[in-house]
Specification:
The chain is 28% helix and 32% strand. The chain has 149 residues and is α+β, with helices and mostly antiparallel strands. It has a 7-stranded mixed β-sheet with strand order 1-2-3-4-5-7-6. α1 crosses α2. The two termini are 22 Å apart.
Length: 149
């Protein structure tokens, strides 16, 4: 089951801690984004099993790079190692893309150091994006009206 954290406020703090443990960004940053999602374009999804979150992602306006014109963005995609290879990331991304498409968006972006997974899932390399700290990272885009391969 994919859980939209907007609909499960009791899970928000625990999920903010989970995202923080995966990406090294303070939990309060995730908690603030999750709490504001009803008022912004931010959206956060997790997949739960009996032990807690096994996968999750966010949809936000910007995530630490200077291409603020490319929005919305899928961010913080993570699947626990024990759950990989079971379609969790693909299901999460599919849910996020479906909701964005229903809201009228024509494309979605993400930054990543990975190309194989995204390249096989309908994403196209857009170019390199300068990060806020001056580094560079791959920017990919996906048209939302195209079916996932």
């Amino acid at each position: 089951e994919i859980v939209d954290l907007a609909n499960r406020p009791a899970l928000r703090d625990a999920c903010a801690e989970w995202f923080s443990s995966k990406w090294g960004i303070p939990a309060r940053i995730y908690a603030e984004s999750v709490a504001e999602e009803a008022f912004t374009a931010a959206k956060w999804f997790v997949v739960l099993d009996g032990t807690g979150a096994i996968g999750g992602l966010g949809v936000i306006a910007n995530n630490f790079h200077r291409r603020t014109d490319l929005t919305p963005k899928i961010c913080a995609v993570y699947v626990e190692p024990r759950a990989r290879g079971r379609g969790v990331a693909r299901a999460l991304i599919g849910r996020a893309c479906a909701e964005l498409s229903a809201a009228g968006w024509e494309r979605v972006c993400l930054i990543t150091g990975h190309d194989c997974f995204y390249g096989h899932s309908g994403w196209k390399f857009y170019g390199m994006a300068e990060e806020n700290d001056g580094g560079w990272i791959r920017m990919c885009v996906r048209r939302l009206n195209e079916e996932e391969k």
